[in-house]
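Hey, why these numbers?
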Amino acid sequence: MMKRRTLLAAPLALAPLAAAAQDWKPDHPMRLVVPFAPGGSQDVIGRLFAKVVGEKLGQPIVVDNRAGAGGLLGGEAVARAAPDGHTLLLATAGQLTIAKALGRRMSYDPIADFSPVSHVLDSPAVLLVGPNMPVTDVKGLIAAARAARDPFNYASTGLGTNTHLLGAEFAQRLGLNLVHVPYRGAQPAFNDLISGAVQFMFVAAPSALSFQGGPLRILAVTTRVRFPPLPDTPTLIEGGLPDFEASIWTGISAPARTPAPIVAALNKAFNDSLAEPDLKSRFDVLGVIPAGSTPEAFSAMLQADLARWSEVARKGNISLD
């Protein structure tokens, strides 16, 4: 009887929240803070969302690029904004999990100072090798690294980035002795992969897709199942690393203490936008995968992401402080 009463009461309890989510609308233009410079993939993503979500909510959404300090300036701008639903963060791990995991000093708490809205997109990483590496799969790379007289060098797009930590976790899980070589972005790392100065790297799939058929070879993707733009490329799991999956994710966050009905309305607007055909086609071109989630699921994902990179940082003695 108690279970039946609970089930009957649940829709009634949720009804006011659902109604409030439908009722709330912004009453003046909104601001979407993109913590990167104009022109990059995250800026493009932010502008696509701003147009479609703004139309759904009935107010224009202005993209505010706040590059600097690894995205922390953008995070700070939103953490200090009024919790009224009019200022949002196009969030990535750099602002909300990695900086904290690596002990970076910040002016805000990346978990406590935000209200998660939705996990909206995923971009897998890929494992790349250069033309001088005589391997065709992940197992071959692992065997070559173990047999090498000197430690292999692996590149990343910068100290404390997803690509750095993925390489570190790869080494830790396999017990490999590797040397990390950070670069300022993907292009200089690609150049050294081609020359043979470094042996492999993890990089966001969109950055690597332009090299299909070129001198760089993609050995694996970090998705749980195969990535549609690379149907012939196996996953790391298929390559012999159980449960090794990772995403360079994008989410939407609001300032802490944003009322739940406003968060619910924002969540619905962003999740609904993912089904828009024009937006989906643009995401396909960018090499990103629509996700969509509840605020609670996004919050749980952030906690798991923070725990994962904190452990990798601890084992590898990696710090940004």
